[in-house]
Each structure stands twice: as structure tokens, then as C-alpha cells.
Design a protein that fits this description.
The complex is a heterodimer of chains A (about 240) and B (about 350).
Chain A: E1 5-13, H1 20-35, E2 39-48, H2 61-71, E3 78-80, H3 83-86, H4 93-106, E4 128-134, H5 135-140, H6 149-159, E5 161-164, H7 171-177, H8 179-183, E6 188-191, E7 197-198, H9 201-209, H10 220-229
Parallel strand pairs in A: 1-2, 1-4, 2-3, 4-5, 5-6
Chain B: H1 3-18, H2 22-27, E1 35-37, E2 58-61, H3 64-72, E3 79-87, H4 94-110, E4 113-122, H5 135-145, E5 152-154, H6 157-160, H7 167-188, H8 197-211, E6 223-229, H9 230-235, H10 244-254, E7 256-260, H11 263-271, H12 274-278, E8 283-287, E9 291-292, H13 296-304, H14 315-324, H15 329-332, H16 341-351
Parallel strand pairs in B: 3-4, 3-6, 4-5, 6-7, 7-8
Antiparallel strand pairs in B: 1-2
Helix pairs in contact in B: 5-14, 7-8
Chain lengths: ~240, ~350
């Protein structure tokens, strides 16, 4: 039996705050890759963006990392990595990919979810690191000056993309519209989320600032943390870095 | 207009006085027109009781009339509401649970209501819906799902009935239960608020079964309202699924809270129905801004295909489903070819 290529999924983003939708991306992507028969997803990494990114209402990275950690307490394969957020300044996604890829090569993660029939053994192939994102990110490749062409190419050529569908987006169309993406479309996996669940963090922040319930949109421990730290309240905009 | 400066200074004195009466004020949910930064802490369920920690509150912009109304309105003037959700819950999902949260925030936000309880009432097996697994599993999953909620609970009365029970009867059952509980509570309560209430309450109970639609409920008894999504509202139009008399009773005597993504469709549906139009004041449409499509049907389909349902249902529910291998092609074939109970009953009655 042909052994599968081990894959690690890396999701970059604000995670401001993390929601069930972010967590779903990983589940959907893993299912999709497994279904192809070619891959074995061994690990998921959440990499919250650096505070230096300067996005409006972005709370301090220490909080965003802590919230992601709480959300992932019950996951046995996804973890949060604060490396990107701890760098002195914001860095391009491709650099984050490069960093994590070199880390993986140095110490490959244990194989998870192997067949019970198989002997546990060291992975035969080096793990591939793929960027996990929603279809909306794929569209941002078209935004002028947001991404460097060379970086887009490196991402889809050297690493690979797993892109989860979102309402109102046409990922196939975005790929066809871009020469670079078209050339490497074999390395772009379009995963369809069977159960639409568009929990935007923006909505969550707004609901919180209006004192409305966000229960069942994000894990309870994250909600408790937000409350205890007084995040996302109406007058907390001064707290954001 | 001259009155406003006077009222304004009155309010400022009042607000200092009210700072001492914080619990009552906090329970006065701000209506959408009022912008004030209440401490966010009290709106987080998952703790026992309403959690009131902070004393620092920033009162900012108010519309004066509503402001005074909210502040002067103490607890007993608001109508207490119990939200009842009927359905298969096959299985329960995060979307079902969200309905409760959205409805509660909405009703509390009007300033007229105070939602005190949510009840999940899974339908009995006699409903004979395709793919419906045994009630005891659905009950357990709902209980696991609501474990972390301090106000939503599961009720088994409906599922324990031998025959399928019309929704209006479930509403009636829970309303009567509340009225009975209310009388007992006031009888035993050490605080005698209004002495005539006890007698009036007992009289009401006797009258209630006959003159339900004529007697206005005492402000003190919580009102049961049916919580649902747009699909249930629109199912009123399916021939023989509902008795028209039942629909009338539901909207006239109880009320409907319908959470929907597409408010305009629901509004159109109400407009095109004479009964719903007549009682539109008793039908509340709550907007669901999040495109949330977590239907139980899709959950079951994902499970049959070996796909993950993690983060679509509470973790405890997902674990329970996995442990008991609840959903499969076999389970989906249950009741295939069997006529749904309401259709069977209403068609039979129409013929007789």
C-alpha cells in the first residue's frame, strides 16, 4: 500500500478572537486531504499575526495566543504557535511558512492517525507544510500590493494551499484569473465545507461590545477569558495595540 | 422640549441613587436605542446564576424617554418569558443552541420582557420522521449540550407521551405547569406582595382551561413562547401538517419567536396569512446575521460520510454520537415509507 504524504496545516490570521469557524477550517481541510487518499494530516498549527500588523481592533497578541490555546485545549492535533507574534515586527506569510517548514525538517512530528494495522514507524516522507485558509484569502491575492508575486508563487509552488470554501466566494474563479495560481493549481486544494458556518470574528467582536451572547460561536473557555480580561468591550479600543 | 433639561438633571440624581440598586438596573436590558457600556460580564452564561461582578459602569448616550422607562421599570413590570423549542433534535447542534441565545438577547433588549428559562422539548418517537433515532439518545444529547448553560434545559414530557403530541398541547402543558408553580411559589413565598394575588391566581387556574384566549394573564405568571426557525414558520403552509385552529392558538395565546436569516421571506409569509397577520404583534422575528447552516440533516450526512462534525455540535454531543455510533445509513432508513404522524392524524380527521 502506498504510504501517504504527511501534511502539516498552517493557518495564519488575526484570530481576533478565535471562533468555531477557524477550528472548522482544520477539520474540513483534514477530511478533504484524507479523502484524496494521498495525504495524512498529522498536525495543525495556528499562528496568530503580529501586533505590528496594525489591523483595527486587534487585541494584544498575548491575548490572542492565550485564547487560541484555550480553544485548542481539547484538540489532539492542532496547536497554537506564538513565534510569528513574538517577532519584533510583522512578517510576510511566506516567511512564517519558511520558518515552520525548517522547524519541521529539524524534528518531524509523530505520525497521527496511522492505521491500527500498520506498524508504528518513522515517517518515510518529509512532511509537507501547507497554508490553510478560507476562500476569501485566496481572493486577496488579487489585491494590488497586498502580496508580492514572488511570495504567492513560493507559497503555491514550494508549499501548497488548502482553501476552504466560503459563501460568496468563487475560489475556482480566483485561480483561473491568476496566471501564477493557474500554473500551480495542482498544489491548491479546494475543500468544500459541507455545513456553512460563517462565524465572522468581526461579528463576534460587535456582539461582545453590545453585551450580546456569543455562546456556541466560540468555545466557553475563550468566552470566559474574554470576560475576565475585559476584552472587546465598547470602551476597550484603547487596549488594542 | 423645555422639560428635557429638568428631566435630565432628575435623571442624573436618579442614576446616583440607582447605583445602589444595581441588580435591578442591570436586569433592565437596554433597548437597542440605548447606547451604554454595561459591564460585559453579566451577559455570559455558563456560570451559575447571573454573574454580576463589576461596579464600574459608564453610562453614556441615552434616549431620554427610554432611559427613564428602563430605569423606572423594575423587575415585576416586565413580562417573564420561557422559550420553548420543539423539534426532532436529531441531533442537537450549535445552531439550535444559538437560537436560544439570539432570542433571549432580542427579547431582553426590547425592555418589555425578561427571559427566565429555555426549554428544549425533543419530539416523541411516535412522530415517525424518517431517520429519527430513539428519543432517549436525543434527550441525552440535548442534556449534554445544555450542561454548560445556566438557563436552557431539556424537558422529556413530550417525548414520553405514547402518541405524538401537537405542539400547541406542549405549549399548553408548559404554560399550565408554570401557572401551577407560580401559585405554589406565591403561596409559600415569605414576601407577601399583593395579598389578593393568591386567590386570583387559583381562580385563574380553574378558568384557564376554558377561557384561555379571553383572560389576560397576570403579569406575574411567566409566558411560554414558541421558539423556532423560519422553516417551522413556513411549515404552517404545508397542507395537513398543522391544524389551522392550532396555529391560531399558538400565535394568539402564546406567541412565536422566529429566528431567521432572511427576515423578508418570513415577513412576506406573515403578510400572506390572515391568522398570522392578525396576531403579528405576538410574532417576533429575530435576525440571524451569521450564515449558519448547521442543520441536523447535514450533520447526519457528514457522519455517514466519515466527515468531522467537530465544532458544529458541542464536544460532549460529538463524543456521545461517536461512542454509540448513532447515525448510519441504517438509522437514516428508519420510518422510511411511514407517514408522518401529524399528516396521518390530520388527514384521517379531515376524512371523518
Amino acid at each position: 500500500m502506498k504510504s501517504r504524504i504527511p501534511v502539516v496545516l498552517l493557518a495564519c490570521g488575526s484570530f481576533n478572537p478565535i471562533t468555531y469557524m477557524h477550528l472548522r477550517l482544520f477539520e474540513v481541510a483534514r477530511d478533504h486531504l484524507h479523502q484524496t487518499g494521498m495525504y495524512q494530516v498529522t498536525q495543525g498549527i495556528i499562528s496568530p499575526v503580529n501586533d505590528d500588523y496594525g489591523k483595527k481592533d486587534l487585541v494584544a497578541s498575548q491575548h490572542r495566543v492565550a485564547m487560541a490555546r484555550l480553544a485548542l485545549q481539547t484538540s489532539d492535533w492542532i496547536r497554537v504557535d506564538p513565534w510569528e507574534s513574538e517577532q519584533p515586527q510583522w512578517m510576510e506569510t511566506v516567511k512564517v511558512l519558511r520558518h515552520h517548514h525548517s522547524q519541521l525538517l529539524r524534528s518531524p512530528p509523530p505520525m497521527e492517525g496511522s492505521d491500527p494495522g500498520q506498524e508504528p514507524s518513522a515517517p518515510t516522507a518529509a512532511p509537507q507544510l501547507k497554508l490553510l485558509c478560507g476562500a476569501d484569502i485566496l481572493r486577496t491575492f488579487q489585491t494590488p500590493n497586498l502580496w508580492e508575486d514572488a511570495h504567492i508563487q513560493e507559497i503555491v509552488e514550494k508549499f501548497g494551499l488548502v482553501c476552504v470554501s466560503r459563501v460568496g466566494h468563487d475560489p475556482k474563479g480566483y485561480i483561473l484569473d491568476s496566471p501564477i495560481l493557474r500554473r500551480y493549481q495542482h498544489n491548491i486544494h479546494l475543500a468544500r465545507e459541507p455545513v456553512q458556518n460563517e462565524i465572522s470574528a468581526t461579528y463576534v467582536r460587535r456582539a461582545l461590545s453590545q453585551g450580546q451572547s456569543v455562546k456556541y460561536l466560540l468555545p466557553d473557555p475563550v468566552i470566559a477569558y474574554i470576560r475576565d480580561q475585559g476584552l472587546y468591550t465598547k470602551d476597550s479600543s484603547w487596549q488594542t495595540s | 422640549m423645555v422639560l428635557y433639561p429638568l428631566l435630565n438633571s432628575l435623571f442624573l440624581c436618579f442614576s446616583r441613587f440607582l447605583a445602589l440598586r444595581v441588580p435591578a438596573m442591570r436586569r433592565a436590558r437596554a433597548s437597542p436605542a440605548i447606547e451604554c457600556s454595561f459591564s460585559v460580564s453579566r451577559y455570559f452564561p455558563g456560570r451559575t446564576g447571573e454573574h454580576l461582578t463589576d461596579n464600574k459602569e459608564d453610562v453614556r448616550v441615552f434616549h431620554l424617554e427610554q432611559q427613564l422607562q428602563v430605569l423606572t421599570m423594575d423587575k415585576s413590570e416586565k413580562t417573564e418569558v420561557v422559550l420553548l423549542a420543539c423539534g426532532s433534535f436529531n441531533p442537537i447542534t450549535n445552531m439550535h443552541l444559538r437560537l436560544f441565545e439570539l432570542a433571549k438577547d432580542y427579547l431582553n433588549g426590547t425592555g418589555k420582557y425578561r427571559v427566565i428559562k429555555g426549554i428544549i422539548s425533543p419530539v416523541g418517537d411516535a412522530y415517525k420522521k424518517k431517520g429519527l433515532i430513539p428519543a432517549h439518545h436525543r434527550i441525552i444529547m440535548a442534556e449534554l449540550a445544555t450542561k454548560s448553560s445556566n438557563w436552557v434545559e431539556v424537558d422529556t414530557w413530550e417525548s414520553l407521551q405514547k402518541e405524538w403530541t401537537e405542539t400547541v398541547k406542549v405549549l399548553r402543558h408548559h404554560q399550565e405547569k408554570l401557572e401551577a408553580g407560580n401559585c405554589d411559589h406565591r403561596q409559600n413565598s415569605p414576601v407577601v406582595e399583593r395579598s389578593g394575588r393568591k386567590r386570583k391566581c387559583l381562580e385563574e387556574r380553574q378558568d384557564s382551561s376554558q377561557k384561555k384566549s379571553l383572560e389576560p394573564k397576570t403579569k406575574g405568571v411567566p409566558e411560554v413562547k414558541l421558539l423556532c426557525g423560519a422553516d417551522l414558520l413556513e411549515s404552517f403552509g404545508v397542507p395537513n401538517l398543522w391544524k389551522s385552529e392550532d396555529i391560531t392558538r399558538i400565535v394568539a395565546d402564546y406567541g412565536l419567536i422566529c429566528v431567521t436569516r432572511d427576515g423578508s421571506d418570513a415577513q412576506k409569509f406573515i403578510y400572506e396569512s390572515d391568522v398570522l397577520w392578525k396576531h403579528q404583534s405576538n410574532i417576533h422575528l429575530v435576525n440571524e446575521w451569521i450564515h449558519n447552516d448547521i442543520s441536523s440533516t447535514k450533520i447526519r450526512r457528514a457522519l455517514r460520510r466519515g466527515q468531522s462534525i467537530r465544532y458544529l455540535v458541542p464536544d460532549l454531543v460529538q463524543e456521545y454520537i461517536e461512542k454509540h455510533d448513532l447515525y448510519s445509513s441504517e438509522s437514516e432508513d428508519r420510518n422510511v415509507g411511514v407517514v408522518l404522524a401529524p399528516l396521518q392524524r390530520n388527514t384521517a380527521e379531515a376524512k371523518s
